[in-house]
Amino acid sequence: MRLATWNVxxxxxxxxxxxxxxxxxxxxxxxxxxxxxxxxxxxxxxFAALGYESAHHGQGQWNGVAILSKVGLTDVVANFADGxxxxxxxxxxxxxxxxxRISSVYVPNGRSLDHEHYQYKLRWMAQLRAxxxxxxxxxxxVVVTGDFNIAPTDLDVYDPKKLVxxxxxxxxxxxxxxxxxxxGFTDLFRQHxxxxxxxxxxxYRAGDxxxxxxxxxxxxxxxxxxxxxxxxxxxxxxxxxxxxxSDHAPVIVDLA
DNA sequence: ATGGTTGTTGCACAA
Length: 256
Known about the structure:
27% of the residues lie in helices and 26% in strands. It is an alpha+beta fold. The protein has a single domain (2-255), classed as Deoxyribonuclease I, Chain A, CATH 3.60.10.10. It has a 6-stranded mixed β-sheet. A 6-stranded mixed β-sheet has the order 5-6-7-8-12-9. A hairpin with a 2-residue loop joins strand 6 and strand 7. The longest helix has 20 residues, at 116-135. The structure holds one DNA strand.
C-alpha cells in the first residue's frame, strides 16, 4: 500500500497538479491538507474518475482536509472524536483504508510564541492525542499524517540558529509531538532517513526552495505494526518544482 | 534586520 500526505495549499488552485501527480505516483491513499474548499465544492467526481473514493472535511477559504483511497474508505469521522469540544476549524478527518485507521491532520500554525494561536496549537495537539486514544490502540494499525507545523528536531530545519524563538521549533510544541509519538507512533520517514537534512516545506519567498532553506513539518506517524511494514519513504521534491507548485512537497511511504 | 511569494478575499490576512 502506497500512502502519501500533501498540503496542497488550495485544491482549487492545485487540482491540475494533483491529478497529474496521482497519475504519476499512483498512491493507494492520499491525505490532503489546506484544500480551502467547502464540502460542496470538493471535486469528488474528478477523483472518482481516477479510481478514488474520497472523504472531505472542509469549511471554505481556509483549512480543509481530505482522504482519497483506492483500498476502501470506511468509518469516516470528521473533526475530533474524543468527546471534547469540536474544533471550529476543519483540521482533521479520519477513516479506515485497507485495514489502517488513518487521520489526515492540519495542525494549527501557531503564528508566534506569544500569539493566542500558539496556545490553540498546543491545545490542539493534546486533543489529537485524546482523539487517537479514543478511536484506537497502539497495537492496531494506525496512521496520523499531515502538516504538523512542527519540525521534530533541529535536524528537520535548515538553520536552527535562525529559528530560535520561532514557532515550529519551540520546546513546548515539540514536547506535544513527542507525547503523541510516545503513545505508540514511529516517524516513518525518519526511520528510513536517520541522518538526512531533508525537508517537505519551503517558503515561496526569496528562492528558499532553490537555496535549500526548508523544514520537515509534514509527517507520517505509524504504530509499530505499520512501521514494520514500511519499506520505503521519500519526499517527492519534484512536486515542489515547475509551474504553480504548493509550498509543500508530498511525503510518500510504502507499506509491504 | 528586513523582506521576499502565494492564495483567498475583497482593497488585508494567513501561511
